[in-house]
Design a protein that fits this description.
This protein has 270 residues and is α/β, with parallel strands linked by helices. 39% of the residues lie in helices and 16% in strands.
């Protein structure tokens, strides 16, 4: 069995672009006409350029290979260009190709891929959801804690056991900042109303995108502690672990990190 053909698919995501501006999917087919599908995360280039990157890596390092040889192909791609230094774009491309290979292997074996990776461990897993805008909304759900609380209760009724939300504002390309009193008040009201809406049926996951200073994050966290969030996500920029540690020492809320660490730190296995 050999990897033969590749096709890429760029799929636009309409506004407000929740989950990304676009999705890039890949389909690899073997010489036995078994196809596997993968997805590349939204790297910071034009989507059709990402598709070309995927095709280039496939033709240079994977075409004609047995899809079972994932580790060998992975090492060749990772080491391309001599530096052996993790690059987030290359890792995104490689992840899509590896995913498609596992899909092929599972189909050939007649087994779900988890059986090939050690087998099923849990019968059920908890699942959380973001609070999302919906067609017909007349206000931004992230500026309306009452609407968000109503939506959170609906998600819990669907079986979700945690609700994630981010009312503190968008991430910044610049240094962390102190949130305004208005933003602090809105964030606290979100937690209050969501906790009242879901009670003890769901955890609250307070997302941010690294937009605060350590002092500003602690200031906000102390307002939120009484609502017992399960986590406070990436409150300061991801390249400052010492500042993240200051926040962790300054609040009782667990700090969630790692979403934007480089591959050498967040690992291939996440």
């Amino acid at each position: 069995m050999k990897l033969r053909d590749i096709k890429t698919f760029v799929v636009g995501n309409p506004p407000p672009h929740y989950g990304g501006r676009y999705f890039v999917f890949v389909k690899i087919t073997t010489d036995g006409n078994v196809a596997g599908v993968g997805e590349a995360y939204c790297v910071p280039f034009a989507p059709h350029l990402v598709a070309q990157m995927i095709e280039d890596v496939f033709h240079r390092y994977m075409a004609g290979e047995d899809p079972h040889n994932i580790e060998r192909m992975w090492r060749r791609v990772y080491s391309a260009g001599f530096t052996q230094r993790p690059d987030v774009t290359m890792m995104g491309v490689l992840s899509a190709l590896e995913m498609a290979c596992w899909d092929i292997i599972g189909k050939e074996a007649g087994q779900p891929v988890y059986n090939l990776l050690g087998g099923k461990v849990h019968e059920r897993l908890r699942s959380y959801t973001y609070i999302y805008a919906r067609p017909g909304d007349t206000v931004d759900v992230y500026h309306d804690p009452e609407l968000s609380a109503q939506r959170a209760a609906e998600y819990v009724s669907q079986g979700f056991t945690a609700i994630k939300f981010d009312p503190a504002g968008p991430y910044t390309a610049f240094d962390g900042r102190q949130l305004s009193l208005e933003a602090l008040d809105l964030s606290e009201r979100f937690c209050k109303l969501l906790r009242e809406a879901v009670g003890s049926k769901a955890d609250l996951l307070f997302g941010t995108h690294g937009q605060m200073t350590a002092a500003g994050a602690i200031r906000l966290a102390r307002r939120l502690e009484k609502y017992d969030p399960l986590w406070f996500e990436e409150p300061v920029p991801p390249d400052a672990p010492e500042e993240m540690a200051k926040v962790a020492r300054g609040t009782t809320i667990p700090i969630a990190t790692g979403e934007r660490l480089p591959p050498s730190m967040s690992s291939r296995d996440c």
